[in-house]
Automatic annotation (TrEMBL), chains A, B, C, D:
This is Gfo/Idh/MocA family oxidoreductase. Keywords: Oxidoreductase. It comes from Pelagicoccus mobilis. Residues 4-128 form the Gfo/Idh/MocA-like oxidoreductase N-terminal domain. InterPro entries: Gfo/Idh/MocA-like_OxRdtase_N (IPR000683), Gfo/Idh/MocA_oxidrdct_glycsds (IPR050463), GFO_IDH_MocA-like_dom (IPR055170), NAD(P)-bd_dom_sf (IPR036291). It holds the Pfam family GFO_IDH_MocA_C3. Residues 140-277 form the GFO/IDH/MocA-like oxidoreductase domain. GO terms for molecular function: nucleotide binding; oxidoreductase activity.
Length: 379, 379, 379, 379
């Protein structure tokens, strides 16, 4: 078993989720490399140390450049805020490190393109953390579509609904609310939530040809958590778009943080000629499935409980009837990434896939400004 | 089209439900007889008149004996309280009338047996209003079982949960609460609710061989609504039993009026070797179906929306996707009763079927007293 | 009780649904007028006679002009195909008859506007059969919004999904498939299905300010059921749009007949500051409700089973726990229409409301052609 | 942070689940002890070594007596088959080790009583792995009941349904199927599945006073996986019982491995005067909650998605809207066990609680033989 020496940038929610996955993948999957938690990097050294102690990192850095420079690191995992993805990734690639990056890839397609060029030129393994592809139910959706079980696809619809910013008292900026500060996040729900929906959608149903979008910022000014000053909110609170896929199917997409009652309601549905399927993150261990080829009187939507060895990833876990949780979308991604290293067939989504998603979110935001249908650049 | 002259006894909830069914069956079903609302009978002449006017009865009687004596009546429908079922049915049969009777058939198996003997001796058409057999989903359950789709049956479980008598202030006796007065109702939930569960169960899964039961009366004294006096409550508030069917399958049954949050939650589930099915009165237009013969990875419980022409009774109604309501369990029963007259193959459940159910409820009540397993008499 | 003499034009699905409602409203609601089924009018006299016999119409007409001319008719109910709504309504209004009209009102807003002007000038009672307003759950949604329980509304989303035209073998034109023939239907799913969604949406959430839409015709040619010739399909098979309401809330709408597994899945959801609600025609007796003001740890979406006397219309029906069906959306509309006659406060949606919906569908179709956001004319 | 040196007996499913919990508790919970994986013990040294390597155990033993004798072990965790629980526990207690034991505690109440006496005499920390108490939804059920939110409790119903032994070809005995061999398992579903239901039930609703049960063995003979011989099956395939709790509430319990379509459908429902709650292991992250004190028209069953910091254990995990899995019922039990060591208030269920459950299962099995109600011995 070869070591895979990890240098983690960031110790927030995603730093935690990735680290947990690095710690667990090898107990459940038979892999040729074993992640070694070499170092975590964070600007606040005290917090970084506490994180390292809790999770078992061997060392701490407070400057990502120092981390990237370390010869004992094989892989840089960027779990920091969006505004630093690009510079870290470029440096890491240049240093010949493998690079994993939280989504969305860059602050703009042009940033993302540079990142793609950097990793491709350096020839280093690279991946974006669009983790929902690896919820077993989503992976099975992919399998069913690839097997042709749905036939020609007519419709795709996805939404990602939250409700945590309804109060005008939620600030922008700082540790817990940087996603509301456009200078750190790039955009609002378009890059944060719709990006997930788009990555899954293109994986399942191919490229998107054109979009027309609409965005809104319901709360116009919020206090900055760092400065205490009330400032204009520059992110999109809500975003929706219509789309046409390259294969001729139609789609609706929507994301918001103003949908009372929903915490992380990422749902999608695909309607094909013969069959349809639907998924919902709030019950991520289920896939809804309708097959028109079933006998007429007993046709109905099946609620498939993904807890059996026939289901993707599940043979590695527990027993029929019991579910695994959100965190293992990351565990699976680590397992697949390492399996890609082992086999030489890299796992995806890679940076180029991340760029493809960024082209769509960019077209959505542009279209929301011009009020016109916008062609999506193909990555 | 031949007339079928109806004489209705009772104008309460069930009088209303039956009458509505008599009025509607012929618009939706092609039948050889058409019900004619000749007379309704009730002790309170004023209320009976109002009822007759609202529903279109041609005349009113205040004495059921007068109704039974009328030569222009073909069919006596007994929608009165349980304590008068037997005497009216006996007289009606003797007078050569067809007899329909609300459930349960009699106050005791011995009463019920007399009623069976009376109609069989008279050779008159007879039926008990166990209406739930004719919810399309329940009828389809019967079809699936008869087609052998479930294979050998291992388990049956049913419950009927309500919550309307939790308050100790609910009185007993009188128009709205006669079901709490044992002298009028015979028993509590055993005869009122479990009887429904048992009728369906034996229809779907054959005879019940033996039972062991438990009953409870949570509120020991209630005011009598007629006398104003506080009296001991003699009905069972809750009743549950274990059973063995003749075919070797096991069952649990439960009914109560103390299950907070449930209004009329009649549910059953049948588990067979190959497939299982489940139904719930609160969503009566759906049948849940699991077929182990489905391909492994896409096995799941199907929620069948019974609104298509492949489903029992549905071709007579509206359009795919829209549901019919509770009242049409009665409409279907009328339609099938008339179809039975037309064809000479009488519809069921007939009085003998009603007796079979009464034998089970009687065994449950006896067993609850003795604490022992009790053999069920076969009707 | 005053008679309300009905002249029905059409004996298809909607003729049947309206007639059933006219026959039933008075048994369940206390009203000052009682509908009298005077005449049904259809071009095929034989079929019209059969229909009249089945439903109890006193007479038959084969020319709607004759019907309109009859002095014994108070109300003309237009349940014929869309292409004849306008001329019949204009004539009926001119003859001083009350006019009820199936939706959508006209083939185009200009037709609809003429119809509005005609009934308003004649001062006759008028209503459009947007029946879903009167599903009890939808009516309760209206009440909850009007009581301010949701607070400021941020989002509205609706869809109406069917799957009956996926096969390219489904013809266009003729009795069962006139909805696919643009010369008879006006449009495809936009006028047929989205119109329902829009009527409800504006009733619940006020006027729509602007839209951007997308339509598609998946099957380009279909055989004409009348001529047998293969012809271009001119209706929209699928239609989706983004919208902004006058109150600042955002919306997504979608309708299609290519969503495998859905028969008539009309759903809507409204997200407000304090609470959200959602409805689904496939389980029309339920309303989903989330109230953020509930205590933190027990917050959750409530599935309200509308079967109790606290719920709109329900006190007129059966018992707690049992549901009513689709047909009673029409029964309630008749009851409310008559109550409006009785009280002098006309029930709605009236023709002007119908026009408002037609302005939206028109803007959607125009926008789908131009690819631009389109202002909606206000009725 | 003090070490807590673990000696694990067994490396099957439960050995894996416990080990995973020992490895994870400290990353998510702030605790005064940290488990150290000192040794795993299994009769097959090769398998034990592989297990140790995968999970990070420092050493391996093949004789549990050697393990118990090791001075560097603080805690013996018995994850072996039921037939060896007692002797190991007795020895471990005698050696002054803390003892954790898989459920059910012993093969019989007399064995269990000895185990209780041993740990109590030795004064060592002890716990039984009834892990479902610590699904967050189940813990919240406990809180709601303790806060009096339900009021007087009338009904409890639980079932645990599986379908994995329907085929007569499933063998008995050996690694995967020892649960079918009575000499190893003690009983069938009564000890395996009902024991879980009973532990939860008594935790939530207090002691059980008396029961009447029914058991069945559907497949009478199965091949022994070790000997290859066909032998009589001595376990119960299905088991159901009625019960009366000490508090006067009534209950139904059922477990089976013959319920087609259910993998591990452990469900319970509690009906109180004011409120009811229900849970289902197949969606373990949800609790269903009905509160009659809600305003009349918006009363409904709430589906609470346990993913927020107000919910038990959840503040230690991820973000609102995403669920944790089955394995963390064990993680929570480890965290609580250690917190009990830290605070001096031992976590439960302890061995005496396990004995209480064994008294109930024993009464059920006896009652199934005698056909009579049986008093339950109180632990």
């Amino acid at each position: 078993m070869k070591p895979l020496n990890i240098g983690m940038v960031g110790y927030g929610l995603m730093g935690r989720a990735h680290t947990n996955a690095f710690r667990q993948a090898n107990q459940f999957f038979s892999l040729g490399h074993r992640p070694v938690l070499k170092a975590v990097c964070g600007r606040d050294g005290k917090k970084a140390k506490a994180f390292a102690k809790n999770w078992g990192y061997e060392s701490v850095e407070t400057d990502w450049k120092a981390l990237v420079a370390r010869p004992d690191i094989d892989l840089i995992d960027i779990a920091a805020t969006n505004n630093v993805h690009a510079e870290i990734a470029l440096a890491a690639a240049k240093a010949g490190k493998m690079v994993l990056c939280e989504k969305p890839l860059g602050m703009s397609p042009s940033e993302s393109l540079k990142m793609v060029n950097a990793v491709e030129k350096a020839g280093v393994a690279n991946m974006v953390w669009y983790n929902y592809r690896r919820a077993p139910a989503v992976t099975m959706a992919k399998q069913l579509i690839e097997e042709g079980k749905l036939g020609k696809i007519f419709h795709y619809r996805a939404k990602f609904l939250q409700d945590w910013t309804i109060s005008a008292d939620v600030p922008q900026g700082g540790a817990g609310t940087w996603r509301l500060d456009a200078s750190v996040s790039g955009s609002g729900v378009t890059g944060d939530l719709l990006a997930h929906c788009i990555d899954t959608a293109m994986w399942l149903n191919g490229g998107i040809e054109s979009v027309t979008g609409m965005t809104e910022t319901f709360v116009k000014k919020r206090k900055n958590a760092l400065t205490g000053k009330k400032q204009e909110v520059l992110i999109d609170d809500a975003s929706a778009f219509l789309a046409r896929f390259n294969n001729g199917s139609l789609a609706t997409f929507e994301a918001t943080r103003y949908a009372r009652g929903h915490k992380a309601l990422y749902t999608f549905e695909v309607n094909g000629e013969h069959a349809s399927l639907a998924w919902d993150l709030h019950d991520l261990h289920r896939l809804e499935w309708f097959d028109h080829r079933d006998e007429g009187n007993v046709r109905g939507w099946r609620s498939i409980h993904l807890s059996e060895s026939e289901h993707p990833y599940i043979e590695h876990w527990w027993i029929p009837g019991v579910q695994i949780g959100f965190e293992h979308t990351f565990t699976h991604q680590v397992a697949d990434f390492i399996a890609g290293l082992d086999s030489g067939e890299p796992a995806r989504p890679n940076f180029r896939d991340g760029l493809a998603t960024d082209y769509v979110t960019d077209a959505v935001l542009k279209s929301a400004k011009t009020g016109r249908w916008t062609k999506v650049k193909q990555a």
